[in-house]
Amino acid sequence: MVLKVLAVAAAAAMWPGVTWGGGAEATSPEQEGAFVRSAELEAEVGRDGSSALVRVVYTLDVPAVTPLRIQLLGFGEARTSVVWLGDARQGTWLELDPGEGSMRTAAYTLNLAAPDSAFRLEVRYRLRRALKTEGPSAEAVLPVLVVALPPAPDAGEVFQARVALPEGWRLLDAFPSGLRAGTPGADGVRYASVSLPVVPSVVRVRARTDGAWRPGLPFVLDVGAVLALVIFAGVGFRYLSARQGARFSGR
After folding, report:
1. 3 state DSSP class of 148
2. What is the rounded CA–CA span in Å between residue 77 and residue 102?
3. Peptide bond before 176: cis, by omega within 30 degrees of 0?
């Protein structure tokens, strides 16, 4: 409780013209006219043992007074109860309250002096035991801190994620399924990125640390779908050919 009070005070000092308040007023997950304009996630895995560093930057369209709730759903051992509210130079630790199951939440009320401008909320956190390795196989599970507001109707692809993979790693499959790895940069780091119209509760990547390629689940499903189409097409062709042959033989 002391940590939360200190966090509210520090947050008020960080954003001039913004008043943070807790209590029952801030427990509502929805607010009319409040939307998520964008959510940008950056994560780094494989650099610090099994931990992963995550940074999420939200741009919000909110009225002058807005109940705001953030939530983080733990997946397996990948979870945290404390996040850093602010940028790399200035901020404060914020403790998340236990919720249902592995959910952690925090709720406050924003009182904005300039409600017509977009509000930027930056959160950083470390997920311990987010990365599991077995030989050259690695899997990273990254719970996403979510602001409980709907996406703006005209925002398009609200969520953008970029996950830094160490040099030599090869991405096998991921969730969301649109997550794709680009070419390595000058520093040898390969980034896997995706854009989505909604904010997911988790980002998961499976990779080979030795750079070798192995078929993942999406590849297996794609191959299975192609084989099924080929089989159905072959059966259909044989059926039509048999009927055509019977028609000619009956004349």
Report:
1. coil
2. 10
3. yes
Question: How far is 54 from 231, CA to CA, in rounded Å?
Answer: 45
251/64 Cα distance (integer angstroms): 84
Q: Could you tell me the pTM of the whole model?
A: 0.73
Sheet of 170-175, strand order: 131-134, 137-143, 202-208, 170-175
Amino acid identity of residue 109, one-letter, is: T
| Cα dist from 157 to 61, 98, 153, 192, 197, whole Å | 15, 30, 10, 17, 4
Q: Structure tokens of 138?
A: 């690695």
Residue 247: per-residue pLDDT: 57
No. of helices (H) and no. of strands (E), the chain? 2, 17
- What is the C-alpha separation between 184 and 167, in angstroms, rounded? 8
Weakest mean pLDDT among 4-8, 70-74, 173-177, 224-228: 4-8
Q: What is the pLDDT of residues 119-138, one digit of tens each?
A: 899 999 999 899 999 999 99
d(CA 212, CA 169): 8
- What per-residue string of b and e applies to 155-173 under the rule 16 or more CB within 10 Å gives b? beebbebbbbbeeebbbbb
Question: Per DSSP, what are the bridge partners of residue 210?
Answer: none
- Residue-wise burial string across 102-141, b where 16 or more C-beta atoms lie within 10 A, e elsewhere: ebbbbbbbbebeebeeebebbbbbebeebbeeeeeebbbb
